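LAB NOTEBOOK - FOLDING QUEUE
OPERATOR: T.R.
BATCH SIZE: 2
PURPOSE: Compare the predicted structure-token outputs for two unrelated chains run back to back under identical settings.
PRIORITY: normal
REVIEWER: second-year student, initials M.K.

ITEM 1
FIELD SEQUENCE / FIELD STRUCTURE:
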Amino acid sequence: MLKFKGNEYSCSMELTLDIIGGKWKPLIIWHLGDKTLRFSDLKRTLPNITQKMLTQQLRALEEDQLVNRFVYAQVPPKVEYSLTERGKTLLPVLSTLCEWAIGYSNSLDDN
């Protein structure tokens, strides 16, 4: 039994999916990669996400210490996002998922 943020998980996969699961979190992590991006840059790379959803997902990733948020003291406000070292450990995992998807889609095309 795993415990994280007051919740209990029966296996590590359940915890993993709770942290990075969903439609948008893996894409946000993937697009940040080794870069630092502003909110508008992220929004541009994910045109189908709403501003509200992007904000919610970034806050959740920041709370889980996967994303850094840096606010510049200027007008207009400037905010940049980057992956933490912990967040960067997910990049090889996501890369493997991308490779799997390519192989899977190719195998379906062969049928």
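ITEM 2
FIELD SEQUENCE / FIELD STRUCTURE:
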Amino acid sequence: MLNLNPDEFTAPISKFEAMLKTNEILFFDAQEFESIVRYYIDYGQTNLADRALEIGMKQHPQNAELILLKSELLIFEGNYKCSLRLLEIAEKLTPKHEEVYLQRATIASKSKQHFEAINFLKKALEFSDDQIEIWSLIGMEYLILEDFIPAKNYFKLCLNKDPLDYQSLYNLLYAFEQLNDSSGAIDVLNNVLEHDPYCEVAWHQLGKIYSNHKKYEEALSAYDFAIISDSSFTGAYIEKAKILEKLNKINSAIENYQIALNINDPSAYVYNRIANCYKILGSNQMAIKYLKKAISIEPTFEKGWIEIVDIFYSNKDFKAALEYAKKGIESNGDNLFLIIKSGEILFKIKRFHNAIYYFENAIQLNNSEIKIWDKLIDCNIILKRYNQAQSIINKALKLHPKATSIIFRKAVIEIKLGNTCDSKKYINSLDKTLIKKFWSNSLYSKLKDIF
């Protein structure tokens, strides 16, 4: 890897870009080409990187670094065959270059040849000064293979050499989680804390493990230490608040969520958690206030829309519930809950024509719940669309041939269409206890005497 000061770095770039504006080809040494290509790769300007490599490889055809850079670009483009040919050339020029084996490992991994990738990475270790990076890559390959014991061992190697390598720590904790080895994870975290007692990441992860095991007091202590280590650590406040909720310390939970909001930009998730706390306290007005904030800053936050609609619906404020359900659908597309809830609200306020639209939409979105079919059939019966209702019933019975509520409605439709004998046949096929329940529906109670 090149270590150039800013002047050494920018001068070749300026010279190269000035050259491109003319027909003249200037000479650059191989290191200058390397810095030019790396610059364009880092800034995502692959066309210019390719152009620099084209000129550079003509001027320095036996330079392994330029060949490896070209191979790297080919891997990025998915051209593994050409990349492998270049890697063969690079290996002949510099057989002990770690990058040859790292790139081969990348190709193998992208081709889902993970054991082969691991072998190349182990070969790269023989020539590398950066063991941690390669150990981490080997660990990742084992994670992909879901072979968590060797993955764990390689991430442990990383942490033994650098106890504050947080990425390896997260990967190691994931491996422990998959192995159901929480004691191993706790040992690792305690080891990290021995090296750095104020490591907020380790305290935070320790809190999560204790929380998962319902050791809430220990979890709270861990989160408190995370906050002492870094008073701006938002995640610790949020996790602490979630524990306080579980311990029914709702006001304290709200305080911690508020601190998290004050530290970072507002979060729909945190607003939603505060709203839930106020719901527990019985303050729907405050819950609505925070849910409105959640959906205002993140209109695609479906949970916020669902919960605000639920509150209005429970309070029988159907106008507001319908308004927010419709806005939620506009913001989130085909949200099944909001579509069904819109239909239910419209049914409740006797706008049956409009309710049909939402129930049909729910069915088109592959929701085949019996209650949706029941509501759709009821809407059509109320509107005296008996033939349409019969067609819907026939479709519903294909999906739910033993659904008693749909069979009952089949009997009702037969009565409406004047087919009394068929109607009685369907009624008689049903359990009498269930029939009593269906007759209690005000929509059908007047038909009881017919049977």
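REVIEWER COMMENT (ITEM 2): The domain at 368-451 is CATH 1.25.40 (Serine Threonine Protein Phosphatase 5, Tetratricopeptide repeat).
FOLLOW-UP: none requested
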